[in-house]
TrEMBL record:
This is Isopenicillin-N N-acyltransferase-like protein. Coiled coil: none annotated. Residues 1-21 are annotated as: Disordered. InterPro entries: C45_proenzyme-like, Peptidase_C45, Peptidase_C45_hydrolase.
Length: 360
């Protein structure tokens, strides 16, 4: 189904095992992004590595352990450190050039807490190039002084989508905008969130313009005996906006929702109204329908919602749109559901159906 790596020790040790045992998946990631960067930007891998290096100082100031872990990944995989850095900065490298050259992964993220559900559940479809199915890794990470992490990622990328032993989970929604900086790449921001013990600690890691590009981090937490919360945190080069879920249900896709972000950024998603907005509205409709009918919302609800094909191929369960430009033809690569109340996870590789999910 998916290759699982159990990683433990120092950042260097964690990285080396990731690189050594995930070498095949890392090579697939390197091949995918070398091709994409050239195909869309006409830049070679050497230039991609140089673009990644502008983030080096910010990463060192932010968390030097990330550099040690990426160095370990490179050593274990037998590649250069700059190769691994470029993978971890791939969103920032992609967010340059003309509008018709910009590419980004898409997704639909959903979270529920009380009062919408008795449980705290968060999940998403990650939509991207189908070739990256072969690059996926399930990482289970044990670190001294930090929570244990369960994370699904692309080979070589040390931060992505998952949850930790403190009951904190994060999903990613890419946002395509006109601004980036030399600060910390968003995938390392995701890892910093997963390294956090609390909601406020996680938010502190991404606020105040610490992120190099814009994205939405859907954060949810189930604290033992102290309740739960979920919110969309739209991060950017100048700051964040936090949009909560007072009714206990929240959704995000791939366009900016924050009025304050829109005052500072231009949303360059050329398929906002024919794809992203429809997916968001459909997910909200599915949730409202379940609530109106008095249905209990659980992981089975998420399986149905994330398998939904309304507005095919630009559906929540996304399929390649042959009428779209090549750089915007994406499909659901994996679907993940994390029940934080039960501390249980379900995963489906490829386009989901309710029957295809497997518990991790």
């Amino acid at each position: 189904m998916i290759k699982q790596l159990d990683l433990e020790g120092t950042p260097r040790e964690i990285g080396e095992k990731h690189g050594r045992e995930g070498k095949e998946q890392i090579q697939i990631s390197l091949g995918t992004y070398e091709k994409l960067f050239y195909g869309y930007h006409r830049i070679g891998w050497k230039e991609a590595r140089e673009r990644a290096l502008v983030h080096l100082k910010a990463i060192e100031d932010y968390d030097p352990g990330f550099l040690e872990e990426m160095e370990g990944v490179a050593a274990g995989a037998g590649v250069d450190f700059e190769d691994i850095l470029a993978l971890n900065a791939r969103s920032e490298i992609a967010l340059t050039g003309r509008k018709d050259q910009i590419f980004s992964d898409g997704c639909t993220s959903i979270a529920v807490t009380p009062p919408a559900s008795d449980e705290t559940i968060i999940g998403q479809n990650w939509d991207w190039k189908g070739s990256q199915k072969a690059s996926l890794l399930l990482l289970r990470i044990k670190q001294k002084g930090k929570p244990d992490i369960t994370m699904v990622t692309e080979g070589g990328i040390i931060g992505k989508i998952g949850w930790n032993s403190a009951g904190l989970a994060v999903c990613l929604n890419a946002l395509i905008t006109d601004k980036k900086s030399d600060e910390v790449p968003i995938h390392l921001g995701l890892r910093a969130v997963l390294n956090s013990f609390s909601y406020h600690e996680a938010i502190a890691k991404v606020k105040d313009g610490q992120m190099a590009s814009a994205a939405n981090f859907l954060l949810a937490i189930q604290e033992n005996g102290r309740g739960s919360m979920a919110a969309n945190i739209e991060v950017s080069t100048f700051g964040i906006d936090m949009m909560g879920a007072p009714d206990g249900a929240i959704v995000h896709s791939n366009h900016i929702c924050s009025p304050s972000l829109l005052r500072n950024l231009k949303d360059l998603n050329e398929f906002k109204y024919t794809d992203s907005v429809i997916r968001k509205n459909r997910a909200e409709q599915l949730i409202r329908t379940a609530l109106a009918k008095g249905r209990a919302i659980d992981e089975e609800s998420f399986k149905e919602w994330l398998s939904d094909q309304f507005n095919y191929p630009n559906s929540i369960n996304h399929f390649p749109n042959e009428n779209a430009p090549e750089h915007r033809r994406t499909e659901t690569v994996f679907s993940i559901i994390m029940n934080l109340s039960k501390r249980r996870t379900w995963l489906c590789i490829g386009n989901p159906t309710p029957e295809k999910y497997e518990e991790l």
